[in-house]
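LAB NOTEBOOK - FOLDING QUEUE
OPERATOR: T.R.
BATCH SIZE: 2
PURPOSE: Compare the predicted structure-token outputs for two unrelated chains run back to back under identical settings.
PRIORITY: normal
REVIEWER: second-year student, initials M.K.

ITEM 1
FIELD SEQUENCE / FIELD STRUCTURE:
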Amino acid sequence: MFKQLWATKHPHASHEAADGLGLQRALGPWGLTALGIGAVIGGGIFVITGQAAADHAGPAIMLSFVLAAVCCAFCAMAYAEFAAMVPVSGSAYTYTYATFGELAAWFIGWMLVLEYGVSASAVAVSWTGYFLSLLEHFNIHLPAALVSAPL
């Protein structure tokens, strides 16, 4: 049973199993544009930038952005290398399955699902603050029961 948890699948076997089962193109121009903008910009750039500049980086905020861009470039190159070696859909789950086995891939898959949920809620909370400040400029004040976090 434990051997089966660590069983790996050769990348060529994954590719052969996917033959004829390719992904269908379902996104139109508007969907692709929205997905691209969301992936490139993200929500954190609108939330953390001011706090980081004021509390930590100060005038060196540009250096912080350059350092973050270099780190992101290394991550992008690693994903590009993985995608070239294992050319099937599935991203991090498939790459982990091919290298570390089924148990590690299962763990990575669920961690990605949790990460997407947590990041979406964090961006929603931060954008709520921005939206409330916009409403206050128009003298619109919502009750605290509607706008405060549940915790």
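ITEM 2
FIELD SEQUENCE / FIELD STRUCTURE:
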Amino acid sequence: MSDNLQHIHSRIAAAAGRAGRSAASVRLVAVTKTVGLPEILELHRLGIREMAENRVELARPKVEAAPPDIFWHMIGPLQTRKAAEVAACFSQFDALDRLKAAEALQKKCEEQDRTLRVLVEVNVSGETQKHGFEPADLDRALREMDSFDRLNVGGLMTMAPFDAPESVLRGCFSSLRKLANAHGLPELSMGMTDDFEIAIEEGATQVRIGRALFE
């Protein structure tokens, strides 16, 4: 894992350099959904402080047993009946894809007297199987979310098509960057194991890496 992490850091730095950015402008989020507490503790020992899970029921035991200084991301779609657990367990929800989910999180955060950082998911690829707001609906959605004082909208997230040509990937990531810039949102969560370097070149501030860490 140490060698994998070092290689990923080198690739992040190189991609950032090609875009005229510093490596420090890109945050590595380790996706731990397929591993257990031993791997989480090893990542923590190696200096990783941001980790991500996609299922609340599997994440909770890990979150409770892991060191308290880990910043936990929820990256899967939200089942509204689990909004209370997401609000309680996670530092940030990275896949806010509909207003009903925002309303549920707002209500549970009020009940727990806490705030939750969120990223709004946008379906820039237009794939019917993908979650997220349509780009044309984003402005209205963000205006409605202004009333949710327990949700801190920090930026946008997208997932590019799998196995797509580089030109398509760049188009998706570039589109999200332009949307974020238009709305003054600083965080861009885009890019995974197979495409994170392209995402960084197109402005990603946060990349989600799982397989490349653990294979």
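REVIEWER COMMENT (ITEM 2): The longest strand covers residues 151-157.
FOLLOW-UP: none requested
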